[in-house]
Amino acid sequence: MADCLFCRIVTGEIPATIVKRTEEAVAFRDIDARAPTHVLVIPTQHIPAVREATGPEREQLLGGLLAFAAQVASELGLDKGGYRIVTNTGPDAGQSVDHLHLHVLGGRRLTWPPG
Ligand code: 5GP
Ligand code: ZN
After folding, report:
1. Where are the beta strands (DSSP E) in 3-109?
2. CA 40, CA 43: separation in Å to the nearest integer?
3. CA 88 to CA 71: how far, in whole Å?
4. pLDDT confidence bin for 93, thresholds 50/70/90
């Protein structure tokens, strides 16, 4: 999608600090990190949010995205201390970019529940 910020990060039109990428997914540093490690994991395909990830193909994509996020966390050294993977969906959750993304947060003790 031409006017989608994260689609433009996928194409390289907007620069980002890429951590890992495959055909299906890209992991990059969040511009406004809320933890010592804060990475966003997105599908290369434009899907607005997890609620739109329905049907067998997208459900498979979701599984792959979660596994990819776990690999990224591991490669960033978060396995021992642990980490959180979260996806905001819609206004009540504060979703600000309408391209499905998983936040991978770690490197400090996280509070629960989130605000
Ligand atoms: P949301 O609030 O939708 O769950 O998360 C969107 C995230 O995207 C925020 O954490 C925000 O800091 C991050 N973000 C917004 N614009 C940019 C950008 O241009 N580059 C990068 N790397 N992250 C961004
Ligand atoms: Zn997009």
Report:
1. 18-21, 25-29, 37-43, 83-86, 102-106
2. 10
3. 21
4. very high
Assess contact for 40 and 101: CB atoms under 8 A: yes
Question: Would you say the pTM of this structure is higher than 0.70?
Answer: yes
Q: Regarding beta strands 83-86 and 37-43, do their DSSP bridges make them parallel or antiparallel, or are they unpaired?
A: unpaired
Please give the radius of gyration of the chain, using alpha carbons only, rounded to the nearest integer: 14
- What's the CA-to-centroid distance between 32 and ligand 2, angstroms? 19
Residue with tokens 């997914």: 25
With bands split at pLDDT 50, 70 and 90, how would you rate the model's confidence at 40? very high
Q: Does the annotation mark 103 as catalytic?
A: no
Q: Is residue 88 exposed (0-12), middle (13-18) or buried (19+ Cβ within 10 Å)? A: middle
**What is the spatial distance between Cα 47 and Cα 89, in angstroms, rounded to a whole number?**
12
Residue labelled with tokens 């991978």? 104
Ligand 1 centroid–CA 30 distance in Å is 6
**First and final CA of the chain: distance in angstroms?**
31
